[in-house]
Amino acid sequence: ALAGTAADSQDDPLPFQDDFASSVLEGLSASPKTAEPKWLYDALGAKLFEAICEVDTYYPTRNEMTVLADRAGEIAGHLGNDIILIEPGSGEGIKVRYLLDALGGQVTVYVPVDIAAEQLVYLGETISAAYPDMLVAPVVADFTGTFEIPADLPPGRRVLFFPGSTIGNFEPEVASELLKRLREESRADALLIGIDTCKDEDRLVAAYDDPVGVTAAFNKNLLNRINRELDGTFDLDTFHHEARFNPDRSRVEMHLVSDRDQTVEVWGRRFSFSQGESIHTESSHKYSPEEFQVLAGRAGWRPDTYWKDSDGLFSLHLLKA
Ligand code: AVJ
């Protein structure tokens, strides 16, 4: 069954628009210039991310799915019955299907939470059609802010499902705060979370600067979105995508680098770029299992167990509140 989609601002055709504007202006005024990665996911951005997951060099999605598929039975055994599964940043909702298939009727309610409203509505409809005995209760929200899990859910064991290493987009301290807040707000008992491990620079950079150019398009779409929604004047031909490994912080950074000195307008304000200056649009932090367990521990999560794929490229952790 499908419950109505809950939203922060039900009548607003463009929810988050004010947040988008103020966040972009603030990031462009900062030095170095930055943008929050969540703005990469407008309708086109969400599609481009789906395409990234199909690219040969982007291993995280595929390797995480093999862990989910190979360990499904074990995971099911750890989680128990009458599960309310809450997924922040549900996206296309492919991974959750592995889990739902493995868990059989153990999941009674699925609560996908996402900022990409159109994709979320579609996901709600398709998942509810595929799993008719389960209640699907979508929530349109930016999970980095406060969001409300629908109040009228049947009782059950609340499990947070946070795959994809999405948590890697946040600075470690912020990630820890977010995991704490998610635990408190969702009153979850367990957390099943995907974490990308650190590995050699070549493989990491190839994952974020793929030969097909899909990641470049995904990154540059931010400029397209700013032009469209905030009256921006970015010339996309004068910026290029760059993926940089930052070994000191164990992360891959995505940048949009200006190819020349130029001035750009956004919402009537002018921002100047010198040649080679970039907007830092995303970081993807990589953690060893032990490093991640320490981070999660600071958020009040106790490590239970974790699994890796057979190549050791990606890890899936189970933690308890
Ligand atoms: C969806 C945040 C996990 O950081 O690997 C993929 C996003 N950016 N390629 C990641 C992304 C560039 C992805 N996450």
From TrEMBL:
<protein>
    <submittedName>
        <fullName>Dimethylhistidine N-methyltransferase</fullName>
    </submittedName>
</protein>
<feature type="domain" description="Histidine-specific methyltransferase SAM-dependent">
    <location>
        <begin position="21"/>
        <end position="320"/>
    </location>
</feature>
<keyword id="KW-0808">Transferase</keyword>
<keyword id="KW-0489">Methyltransferase</keyword>
<dbReference type="InterPro" id="IPR029063">
    <property type="entry name" value="SAM-dependent_MTases_sf"/>
</dbReference>
<dbReference type="InterPro" id="IPR019257">
    <property type="entry name" value="MeTrfase_dom"/>
</dbReference>
<dbReference type="InterPro" id="IPR051128">
    <property type="entry name" value="EgtD_Methyltrsf_superfamily"/>
</dbReference>
<dbReference type="InterPro" id="IPR035094">
    <property type="entry name" value="EgtD"/>
</dbReference>
<dbReference type="InterPro" id="IPR017804">
    <property type="entry name" value="MeTrfase_EgtD-like"/>
</dbReference>
<dbReference type="GO" id="GO:0008168">
    <property type="term" value="F:methyltransferase activity"/>
</dbReference>
<dbReference type="GO" id="GO:0032259">
    <property type="term" value="P:methylation"/>
</dbReference>
<dbReference type="Pfam" id="PF10017">
    <property type="entry name" value="Methyltransf_33"/>
</dbReference>
